[in-house]
Amino acid sequence: MVGRGDSRGQRELYERYSGYLSAVARRYLGDEDTVKDVLQEAFVRIFQKIGTFRYLGEGSLRAWVTKIVVNGALHELRKDRHLLAVEQLPEPEPDAEPEFDDIPAAVLQDMIRNLPDGYRTVFNLYVFEQKSHREIASVLGIKEDSSASQLLRAKARLAQEIKEYRKKNG
To answer: Does domain 105-169 have CATH number 1.10.10.10?
Structure first.
């Protein structure tokens, strides 16, 4: 197990998870320098707290380190006040969710990454972290209705982006 001061184990842990955790941080943060800062702080925290990690079966280490990165990204977003209050914005028109199987993963990731911070954060927490609107509201300090509204807006924006992509790429 990777203990404090075990540089070989720390290097192995870093090499195993740094690419994945960078992608997780990028889902939440638009600025690459901020992604790097959050990732560095996350690994410092991981190495400091590894003694508190409890193995709960396959995937538990990945889930634990992911949670640390997500929390770091959310902290950064709250700190810089990038999360938008959206109660005053009109609701988008409900639309059927588009199929996206034919959209390359990298293109879809870029579309998600280009969402406004609040939309992107709620979308990621709901879709990737499988949080409820109640949990999202608690984590972000917003109303449940705001969480649901931002998710709806994120989906509408992504649907529009997918339509535009298909027009350009036939």
So the answer is: yes
